[in-house]
Amino acid sequence: MQTYIAILRGINVSGHKLIKMDALRKLFDSMGFKNTKTYIQSGNVVFQSKQAKPTDLEKKIAGSILKEFGFEVPVLVKEADELEVVLKNNPFINKRKEDATKLHVTFLSGEAEKALIDKVKEGNYASDEFIVVGKTVYLFCPNGYGNTKLSNTFFENKLKVTATTRNWKTINELLAIAAELT
Hints:
Layout: E1 2-8, H1 21-30, E2 34-39, E3 44-49, H2 54-69, E4 75-79, H3 80-88, H4 91-94, E5 103-108, H5 114-121, E6 129-133, E7 136-140, H6 152-159, E8 163-167, H7 168-181
Antiparallel strand pairs: 1-3, 1-4, 2-3, 5-7, 5-8, 6-7
Helix pairs in contact: 3-7
């Protein structure tokens, strides 16, 4: 069995697209996934399945959510090993030792075109900074994520890919849950 992390975008935010975590776990179980565990209310699910392409799992999960709950939710699926690489390679920790409470990771559905990334890098984002590595955007937001321009919508509009962000604590917790399953 392979361990995966599903990261759902935009559920349980401001009373929209409400999904209770018990219902989400039951949905994952009904799809044949094993050892399903959720973390906080924002749509983080650790589960095990026979080895499959993450993109196939994303489609399956998104389709099941639409059928069960009646609304579309972008879903990104990461293998536990991929999340571990993200955790180990944060340049804001490894090179600068920044405060982990100010760090976030935006996951992209695909690699953005270099020209689009270069154009975004030209912008002025006050004290906020970002570094794009493949399908991962490392964020440093010293004044908090709630005060940054560098939101999911910003990256989706500028980079033309789906994006969803998690804080550094959540990334660590998801990886800890995944490690318990292996």
